[in-house]
């Protein structure tokens, strides 16, 4: 919903400027990659570009998860720890089943995935119930489940990594290829396509935008706001489950601190890409852009051997700068 | 916050009405607090040991100061995710400054301490200014700004120390202040009480306090009424960071070394939890520092009680999470019932 859409007369005069500002972030992304190339030619090699894409596949999934709830003016602080809890519990089921009873590996993997999805959905249900029915502020509700999920993750594993996740699982979600394309890219693309259609072509998806843009209007219009809000939080956790299983396959073990900084990173990626924290604005493409931007930035800094601590400082500055640019973009349109 | 003034009371209040009004403004928190202390009195005598009470008081003081700052920012409708990182930055900068200065001028301990503390406070002012200027003038969402400064402050702290604790602060600072008892109470407690009193005074008796409520209640209305909102917004963020910085100084003095891992996201989340439990609205405009101090006391006692009862530390996380959500949900339900009445 842009100004141009509302006032067709102004559309032409603002078109060039609006397009320019709209393209600011993609331009910044390209300039940044080129800038790194000056210092380190390998940045732009095919291998590294593929590497960036694979790395970004993970972040884009978590950013998409986060976007679903940010659209409704919420956010999910528990996302990172949900990832940890899912990773640990699914790994425990997989190793337990595959080792002891001589069950087939496929069954073990299936049950592990089911377990992970169950844990994720339970956390999403908690968040959604607290936000939609108990009217607890999303920050507080997900702060609560942040602690709960962390508790589950460390309790289930005793704080230690769960090793011996079946190789078949790692091949399925990490090292395997289909038509020469790496599994993480395929899985991320699948998630993005599903969420794209959900957000744009279903009543539920369109309602999320209305819930964020104007909650009262949504209720007055007769939308089942509470149910949709709760479903949004469950969907967020479910998408996070996919990412968590992919990360578990990559490390080959269930890690109780896998989530770590994912919460803040996923919010940063979504918002840098153009998802508004005030709700109702954003889409799958924003998440792709934001995730690519953050991944390319840290990849470039790694290749040019920037100190890890300096990277944190740079990342902080870039987040603030990117949001400022984005604010210019949204206020001009 | 001015709603009560508008409610005319044509008939004199009965005792019951007054009691229910007080309960409505103060909330469930004090009742829960008393119940918890009574429970501990029955179950675990160690809770009332001198050492344990001092520990509770110290952690309450740390949390209350940082939560008071968080509350101010929440009242203007903002957020400060960077408070934990400010603690870490303050801790490393102050310890580093004191260590360098006391090596340079070993005889002038007083000057070393004063300059070191000033360097620490400077970190708070610095981060607070970045936060405030970005929020007020560039109109960037507080969540994202402070997420950025969280990363920046943590990075600087780690860069300065390489993650290694910084020793070499003057002994006097640690022994006579950080770990000292003044008139039978930890020194930290006096600092916390004084700071809470100052914030209370600002909130209740000064123009600054009223403006902070006004900006949070309705930014546009405040601006139209002539409140220089941008200036006061910056000031609020600086106050929050400075309070976090003071917490960092107290914690460093207690520990005896500067640590880049001090505070962190745990302190940040707890400061928000303490404020929210005390009824501070995340939508801005509502919040009282005396209740926030009570919220900090509640969280500290809860953690301490669970430690004494030997509840598994991982289980404690789960309990803490459920209690925070439940407290806010009850508060929210209570509010709705009152509106219906």
UniProtKB/TrEMBL annotation, chain A:
InterPro entries: ABC_transp_permease. The chain crosses the membrane at residues 20-39, 51-71, 77-97, 109-133, 139-157, 178-199, 228-247, 308-325. It is a multi-pass membrane protein. One of its GO terms (cellular component) is plasma membrane. The keyword Cell inner membrane applies. It is found in: Cell membrane. Keywords: Cell inner membrane, Cell membrane, Membrane, Transmembrane, Transmembrane helix, Transport. This is ABC transporter permease. One of its GO terms (molecular function) is transmembrane transporter activity. Its main location: membrane. The keyword Transport applies.
TrEMBL record, chain B:
It is found in: Cell membrane. GO terms for molecular function: transmembrane transporter activity. It holds the Pfam family BPD_transp_2. It is a multi-pass membrane protein. It comes from the Bacteria. The chain crosses the membrane at residues 21-42, 62-79, 86-105, 111-138, 145-168, 180-202, 232-256, 262-282, 289-309, 315-333. Keywords: Cell inner membrane, Cell membrane, Membrane, Transmembrane, Transmembrane helix, Transport. GO terms for cellular component: plasma membrane. Its main location: membrane. InterPro entries: ABC_transp_permease. PANTHER family: ABC TRANSPORTER PERMEASE PROTEIN YPHD-RELATED, ABC TRANSPORTER PERMEASE PROTEIN YPHD-RELATED-RELATED. This is ABC transporter permease. It comes from Microbaculum marinum.
């Amino acid at each position: 919903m842009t100004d141009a859409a509302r006032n067709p007369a102004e559309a032409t005069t603002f078109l060039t400027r609006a397009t320019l500002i709209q393209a600011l972030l993609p331009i910044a992304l390209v300039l940044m990659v080129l800038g790194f190339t000056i210092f380190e030619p390998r940045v732009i090699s095919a291998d590294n570009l593929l590497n960036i894409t694979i790395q970004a596949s993970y972040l884009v999934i978590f950013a998409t998860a986060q976007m679903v709830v940010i659209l409704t003016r919420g956010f999910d602080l528990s996302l990172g720890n949900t990832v940890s809890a899912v990773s640990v519990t699914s790994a425990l089921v997989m190793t337990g089943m595959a080792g002891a009873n001589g069950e087939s590996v496929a069954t073990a993997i299936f049950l592990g995935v089911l377990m992970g999805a169950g844990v994720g959905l339970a956390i999403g249900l908690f968040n959604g119930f607290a936000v939609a029915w108990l009217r607890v502020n999303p920050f507080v509700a997900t702060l609560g489940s942040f602690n709960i999920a962390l508790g589950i993750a460390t309790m289930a594993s005793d704080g230690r990594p769960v090793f011996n996740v079946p190789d078949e699982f790692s091949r399925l979600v990490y090292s395997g290829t289909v038509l020469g394309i790496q599994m993480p890219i395929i899985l991320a693309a699948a998630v993005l396509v599903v969420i794209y259609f959900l957000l744009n072509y279903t009543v539920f998806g369109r309602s999320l935008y209305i819930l964020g843009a104007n909650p009262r209007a949504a209720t007055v219009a007769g939308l089942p706001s509470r149910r949709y809000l709760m479903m949004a939080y469950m969907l967020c956790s479910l998408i996070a489950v996919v990412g968590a299983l992919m990360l578990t396959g990559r490390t080959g073990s269930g890690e109780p601190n896998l989530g770590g900084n994912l919460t803040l990173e996923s919010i940063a990626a979504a918002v840098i890409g153009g998802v508004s924290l005030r709700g109702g604005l954003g889409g799958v493409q924003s998440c792709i852009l934001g995730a690519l931007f953050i991944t390319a930035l840290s990849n470039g800094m790694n290749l040019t051997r920037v100190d890890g601590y300096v990277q944190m400082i740079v990342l902080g500055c870039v987040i603030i700068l990117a949001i400022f640019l984005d604010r210019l973009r949204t206020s001009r349109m | 916050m001015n709603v009560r003034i508008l409610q005319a009371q044509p008939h004199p209040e009965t005792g019951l009405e007054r009691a229910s009004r007080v309960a409505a403004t103060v909330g469930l928190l004090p009742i829960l607090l008393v119940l918890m202390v009574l429970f501990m009195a029955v179950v675990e005598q160690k809770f009332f040991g001198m050492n344990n009470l001092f520990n509770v008081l110290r952690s309450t003081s740390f949390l209350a100061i940082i939560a008071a700052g968080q509350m101010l920012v929440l009242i203007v409708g903002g957020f400060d995710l960077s408070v934990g990182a400010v603690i870490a930055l303050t801790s490393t900068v102050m310890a580093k400054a004191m260590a360098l200065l006391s090596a340079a001028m070993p005889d002038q301990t007083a000057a070393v301490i004063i300059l070191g503390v000033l360097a620490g406070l400077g970190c708070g002012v610095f981060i607070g200014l970045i936060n405030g200027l970005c929020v007020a003038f560039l109109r960037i969402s507080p969540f994202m700004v402070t997420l950025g400064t969280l990363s920046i402050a943590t990075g600087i702290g780690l860069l300065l120390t390489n993650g290694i604790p910084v020793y070499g602060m003057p002994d006097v600072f640690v022994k006579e202040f950080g770990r000292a008892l003044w008139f039978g109470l930890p020194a930290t407690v006096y600092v916390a009480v004084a700071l809470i009193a100052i914030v209370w005074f600002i909130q209740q008796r000064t123009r600054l306090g009223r403006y902070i409520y006004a900006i949070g209640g309705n930014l546009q209305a405040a601006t139209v009424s002539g409140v220089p909102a941008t200036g006061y917004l910056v000031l609020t963020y600086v106050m929050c960071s400075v309070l976090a910085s003071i917490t960092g100084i107290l914690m460093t003095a207690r520990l005896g070394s500067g640590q880049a891992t001090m505070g962190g996201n745990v302190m940040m989340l707890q400061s928000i939890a303490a404020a929210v439990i005390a009824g501070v609205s995340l939508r801005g405009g509502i919040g009282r520092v005396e209740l926030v101090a009570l919220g900090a006391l509640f969280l500290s006692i809860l953690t301490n009680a669970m430690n004494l009862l030997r509840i598994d530390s991982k289980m404690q996380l789960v309990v803490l999470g459920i209690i925070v959500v439940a407290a806010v949900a009850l508060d929210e339900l209570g509010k709705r019932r009152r509106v219906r009445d």
